[in-house]
Amino acid sequence: MTATEDRTRAAERKPPQIVDMSWDPITRIIGNLGIYTKIDFANQEVVECHSTSSLFRGYSVFMKGKDPRDAGFITSRICGICGDNHTTCSNYAQQMAYGVKTPPLAEHIVNLGEAAEYMFDHTIFQDNLVFVDFCEAMVKATNPSVLARAERTPAPRGDIHGYRTIADIMRAFNPFEGEVYREALKVSRITREMFCLMEGRHVHPSTMYPAGVGTMPQPSTFTDYLSRLTRVIDFVKEAVALNDDVFDFFYEALPGYEEVGRRRILLGCWGAWQDPAVVDYRYENMNRWGKAMYVTPGIIVDGELVTNDLVDINLGLRVLLGSSYYEDWERQEPFVTHDPLGNPVDMRHPWNQTTVPVPQKRDFDGKYSWVMSPRWYHQPSDSHLALDTGGGPLARLWSTALSGLVDTPYIKATGHSVRISLPKSEKLPETTLEWHIPRWSNTIERDRARPYFVAYAAAMAYQFLEEAMQMMRAGETKVFQDFEVPDEAIGVGFHEAVRGVLSHHLVIKDRKIANYHPYPPTPWNASPRDSHGTPGPYEDAVQGQPVFEENGPDDFKGVDIMRTVRSFDPCLPCGVHMYLGKGKTLTTMHSPTYGASHG
Amino acid sequence: MGTIKVGRRQAKPTTPTHVRGLHQGNWGPRRRQPGHHEDGTADARRSTGIHWKRHNRVMDSMPSISPG
Asked: Which residues take part in binding Mg(2+) (chain A) (predicted)?
């Protein structure tokens, strides 16, 4: 059994009154996601759920034959909000393939850029998109009794954030008018500026290359970043207090709310921020430098750490089909039979995958999505685990806490919690926040982890800044390492996109890309039922969840379901569509432009 | 592409990824851009061509930091 157990309460069941409810496309997320459910209004619960995406991208198809050095720039376009995560991950994979190590200062410049990205993206998603589901206007429309109670409930951490009651906080969440909503927009601008100082441009970085960066390290690069970071620290400290107050209140006001979006604890984290003193990008040493990352990679099953070895994580990856519009590649020639350590690589591993799309009609009993079903093979139980990312922060904090390896001046992983120390800021004193491993992997905990991770990223940024400035003062300003592209090589990059695990798998033959497969977080989270019938995490989390909304089938908003789906921070990357009048072809180009005459 | 009906392809996947003589970017900008040193560091010549020697470090024992 690789999915969550049936939560149906046997006692006191009324005859079901099942209504089909679907949301396609879901708004306030990125891309094109449809959620199709059957809701039993008599027993107030979701009976069945299917998640589907009608979007085909085909990066793995058209990357073939291209220059591997272009991969970071091309794959950045996968996403319109976390493109730099793809560039970073692609560069990690390329550095492994080229056998090159980035200079330490360049590594910290990438780390600083990524820290700013986490702060920016989590803030804008949480405060401007997720909180709309928890704002006064929404709660009034869906659970008026909860709002009435919120008016009477004082906010326990009012001394930090300045709001008297929970309802005051909810009013501050109201879109376009609320104070928190507007402040978050300002903060996301500042954090984006921080990002641009390091990586040149947001979100498709212009100064990130394999083996280094083009950012010129000079004193003002780092002081400009520092001054902006210090400006947002007040907001970060307040955000954590606000979130804790609101989410604690939901548990209290709606007993049983922990069941909303709860699924078996199956979390995956691939680690973020390399330690320049340890990392050498060699596959043989991947276990060592993976554990030195400032967010520890790990796979957590039922609250226990299964592994934090990136080699194990890599070899356990399996891409299953089952309900996806693709043809199987079992009969194709494998690209990689053994990894550099001599371990056998499975045919269903992304290194060996061939994407063969077969568009067809959507059929919920057969094939219904363009998303494949990535799974992690767990040998002891001989099962393919449908891991989720907990929206990113939940898995990152959980894995870091359990491994207990991160011990830096600002962050300490204790084995059961993560302690984050933030320095004094304009309004608030020096603060130590502590994120404890929660009892459940559910909607509220996924959302709660997000502001804590913003604090985590801010705290790490202080450390990266201090170390980078020290290197610069010592004159170690080298930021690029020369390299050669080998004739044949393989590489893998492990990173954390903002919303969770990200891996790029690269095979080079004849100095060209022979196979390239990016595995971002959403294929894990939004995957449909696989060939073993195991539902993907969205389906699993929504299926069987209770419904607390007070509206009946006629004016049902599905807020509890939307909260669950959004808690995963869905990001089904959007394609760019261009319209050129009546189909007039302006120009036809083929990359590489200069190579065209060589045919 | 499986069983999808597609037109005649415009791309030529057999063309080389790189044409000889074109700048590849695998090596640092030292040869083309003044002020960048062999060891990856840079000096004031990177930022300005005017009296740049006067903006450099005053002693060899000091680190060479790019002005800015």
From this structure: 577
